[in-house]
Write a structure and sequence with these properties.
The longest helix is centred in the C-terminal third of the chain and has 18 residues. The chain is of the alpha/beta class. The radius of gyration is 20 Å and the shape is elongated. It contains 9 helices and 10 strands. The strands form 2 sheets. The chain has a 5-stranded parallel β-sheet, with helices on both faces.
């Protein structure tokens, strides 16, 4: 039996931005998929509905893969593809497999010789890098940094040294409720000449992308609030 294909389906990264992500490729492929693996089924259903493609949500089948999932069950999630059905893999926001547990599904799909096709869509990490003006030739994404204050300061210092030594842009994300604290810590920890970028609510109504030296940031009073953010810096 011919195996199905797993499509990696990017979802919106800002509230109300779903239709903006609708490419002709996605519009043509999505109506033919009935089986989905999603970080959270509710978010996936809401995103698909927002695209207004005439898809009956009640006809779709969702399996969840998130931090609460048993990784030993991933193999069973691929059964529809092994039985010839095309599948979709979705994250709550952005590109599946990037800073996302869906990478485990993709790895297993390759092991089982199931074709994986990534679709075009928004990635907050790459969009932030594109708009930052920092080095896009050499960069590192570190996900979430440590929560402990001492460990966090140590990690920031380590990344700044790495950035200076290799001309490497450092990129990381943080939960929205900690964004203001992280911004203040970066301003007070990084060297004055280091370029620091705040990319807030990318593709959303409150989008703001600012790059300045840390010395200039110190002269600003800026409140992020609870918007999702990507932080980047490049030591000079």
């Amino acid at each position: 039996m011919k195996k199905g294909v797993i499509y990696l389906i990017p979802s919106s990264i800002a509230e109300g931005a779903g239709p903006q992500n609708l490419t002709p490729q996605l519009a043509g492929i999505l109506p033919g998929i009935k089986h989905f693996i999603a970080e959270h089924a509710r978010e996936a259903r809401r995103f698909i509905s927002s695209l207004k493609l005439g898809i009956k949500i009640e006809d779709l089948k969702f399996t969840e893969l998130n931090k609460h999932s048993d990784l030993n069950e991933i193999g069973n999630m691929l059964d529809p593809a092994l039985n010839g059905k095309n599948m979709g893999l979705m994250s709550d926001a952005g590109c599946p497999g990037v800073a996302d547990p869906g990478a485990e599904v993709v790895k297993l799909a390759h092991q089982k010789n199931i074709r994986v096709i990534p679709l075009v869509g928004p990635s907050s990490i790459l969009l932030a890098l594109m708009a930052s003006g920092l080095s896009g030739q050499n960069f590192r994404f570190s996900g979430y940094l440590p929560i402990d204050q001492k460990s966090l300061k140590g990690k920031i210092g380590e990344l700044e040294n790495q950035s200076r030594k290799h001309n490497e842009t450092q990129i990381f994300i943080e939960t929205p409720y900690r964004s203001d604290k992280i911004l203040n810590l970066l301003i007070n920890t990084l060297q004055p000449s280091t370029l620091l970028t705040l990319a807030k609510d990318i593709t959303g109504a409150d989008e703001k992308i600012i790059t300045m030296t840390v010395s200039k940031w110190k002269n600003q009073t800026y409140k992020i609030g609870k918007s999702p953010c990507v932080f980047l810096f490049l030591a000079q």
